[in-house]
TrEMBL record:
This is LysM domain-containing protein. Residues 41-65 are annotated as: Disordered. PROSITE patterns: LYSM. It holds the Pfam family CIS_tube. Residues 170-217 form the LysM domain. Gene3D superfamilies: LysM domain. InterPro entries: CIS_tube_prot_N, LysM, LysM_dom_sf. It comes from the Bacteria. Signal peptide: none annotated.
């Protein structure tokens, strides 16, 4: 790798008006420094019921909960990373993603992506901790802990809930070295359909396919 010409991939946030994320608002924010840790959570619901006279309760699967992700970002204006100065502008730009917007009557939908990591949803919290100030009180360093929650469209939810229907869905057994975009190109005739594939299978890392993994192939209108 040529270290002089290679570029560092930075975690980037993009804002959208709609849950399908087809209408970008032109708001894009990239990190100064990539996070050193990223937490991803997926939960299923198994409520317990105990029959009369039984020693132990029974658990039955009733559905999944929205995926969640959290990460901590460092904003630095001391001159170590970028030109020295207040971080207020960068911080305000980041907080726009979690702020109420009158036209949408809610905060924007967010697409966070960094290398193989991609997450679509909303920011549920942004906790700012100021670490350093200049003599005039301007912030020079802060950490921001972002919490994100997955938000799916009605069509995506319906596709996930009906994934077992044999007349609507097919399956694909992943072979060694296969990529999601290549599978989409073969099945749908268009590599761009890797996104519906990733969403239908709730893949946190679309590049992390495992040999022997079974994928659900959802119907696509343009198939």
């Amino acid at each position: 790798m040529n270290l002089l010409t290679s570029q560092l991939t930075k975690l980037t946030l993009e804002a959208y008006e709609d849950v399908q994320q087809t209408k970008p608002v032109g708001l894009v924010w990239a990190t100064q420094l990539n996070p050193t840790e990223l937490t991803f959570s997926r939960k299923n619901t198994y409520p317990e019921t105990k029959a009369a006279g039984a020693d132990k309760p029974e658990s039955a699967y009733t559905g999944g909960e929205p995926d969640e992700a959290s990460l901590e970002l460092l904003l630095d204006g001391t001159g170590v990373v970028d030109e020295p100065g207040s971080i207020k502008g960068r911080l305000d730009g980041l907080l726009k993603f979690a702020s109420y917007h009158g036209e949408e009557h809610q905060p924007y939908y967010v697409h966070a992506h960094w290398g193989p990591f991609t997450f679509r949803g909303v920011i549920t919290s942004a906790d700012v901790t100021y670490k350093l100030f200049d003599r005039g009180g301007e912030p020079l360093r802060a950490t921001v802990k972002l919490s994100l929650k997955e938000v799916l469209s009605r069509e995506e939810i319906a596709a996930i809930e009906k994934r077992s229907s044999p007349d609507l869905f097919q399956t694909w057994l992943v072979r060694d070295g296969e990529r999601l975009d290549a599978i989409a190109a073969q099945v749908y005739g268009d590599a761009a359909y890797w996104r519906p594939l990733a969403r239908a299978n709730r893949l946190a890392n679309p590049r992390g396919l495992v040999t022997g993994q079974v994928l659900v192939l959802p119907p696509v209108a343009a198939r």
